[in-house]
Design a protein that fits this description.
Strand content: under 5%
Number of strands: 3
Oligomer: single chain
Radius of gyration: 24 Å
Helix content: 55-70%
Strand order of the largest sheet: 1-2-3
Shape: globular
Number of helices: 13
Number of domains: 2
Distance between the termini: 46 Å
Largest sheet: 3 strands, antiparallel
């Protein structure tokens, strides 16, 4: 027997230790750690829930658990490749979360208080599962940022240019369609009825929710990384497009029908924009494939 054969025969095969793998018991422990973190900072999480339930501009927060569940499900096979390493990073994230929460309470800045609560939960999960899970499920952790309510001042700074763009584009489209309309600032007048864009479009009420839906589609659909980046870049423009598509018939309804019916139409049309956004993104994906643009991922795993 040759020296190579003897060495190959007696060389032990190195396999990952069983405790390095992420099993069902490890996942349950991570879920328990997350629940403990939520209970320890229940005041911040209760405040987030109250804002989501009573502030229409933050209602998208209610969609985040559904989106997170979906993204975890479509990427569940990646757990087989993950090992429990780098748990120390979880402790660092927990410390950052506690620090952010303390800073928010000390200076009366709710946004840091909320960020601290989210970071603490993420840190507790990483303390159990390790950093490889963060890499494999990075889109999931990225979507968790939508749990933080957008501060009112930031919403106003973002909604004002959005309202201006929507009002200007809507006026031009309505004129092309033959609907007599005049505009003064963000107020459109149709058939003598003035409709303020802040009322008909409500700034970022659905824009952030649309961004969340588009991020779900982009991160949950198998595609090449370059195509995924392109879709993420186009998401804000698609959100504006969806708002305009909702605004055009809404302005006409406000100028034609009684206010209660118009308000109901506005609310229903807002929620209908979520599936419309999915349809538009699906059509865009089909268009890229038809144009022979490489959008499919290389290999069998997601990019």
């Amino acid at each position: 027997m040759s020296e190579f054969s003897i060495r190959h025969y007696f060389t032990p095969v190195v396999r990952p230790a069983p405790h390095e793998r992420i099993g069902r018991s490890t996942l349950l422990l991570a879920a328990f750690a997350a629940i403990v973190a939520i209970l320890l900072q229940h005041a911040a999480w209760y405040d987030i829930l109250e804002i989501a339930l009573h502030d229409h501009d933050s209602s998208h927060i209610l969609l985040v658990p559904i989106v997170v569940t979906w993204l975890v499900w479509v990427r569940r096979l990646r757990l087989r490749e993950c090992r429990i390493v780098g748990q120390w990073a979880g402790a660092v994230v927990v410390a950052a979360g506690i620090g952010a929460g303390y800073f928010g309470i000390r200076h009366g800045m709710e946004v840091f208080w909320h960020i601290g609560a989210v970071l603490t939960v993420i840190g507790c999960v990483l303390s159990v599962l390790g950093t490889q899970v963060l890499k494999a499920f990075f889109p999931v952790f990225l979507v968790l940022a939508f749990l933080v309510p957008v501060p009112a001042t930031l919403r106003q700074d973002m909604s004002m240019p959005l309202e201006h763009i929507c009002s200007k584009v809507s006026q031009q489209v309505l004129e092309v369609l033959g609907v007599p309309v005049s505009r003064s600032g963000n107020v459109l007048t149709v058939k003598g009825i003035s409709v303020e864009i802040a009322e008909a479009c409500d700034g970022l009420r659905m824009a952030i929710g649309l961004l969340l839906v588009m991020a779900t589609f982009t991160l949950g659909t198998p595609m090449h990384r370059g195509a995924r980046v392109l879709f993420l870049i186009l998401s804000p423009f698609m959100a504006v497009l969806c708002n305009v598509l909702r605004l055009i018939p809404t302005v006409w309804v406000f100028g034609t029908f009684p206010h209660p019916f118009a308000q109901m139409f506005h609310d229903v049309a807002g929620w209908l924009m979520l599936p419309v956004a999915f349809v538009l993104l699906s059509l865009l994906l089909r268009l890229l494939r038809w144009a022979a643009v490489p959008v499919a991922p290389y290999g069998l795993s997601y990019g």
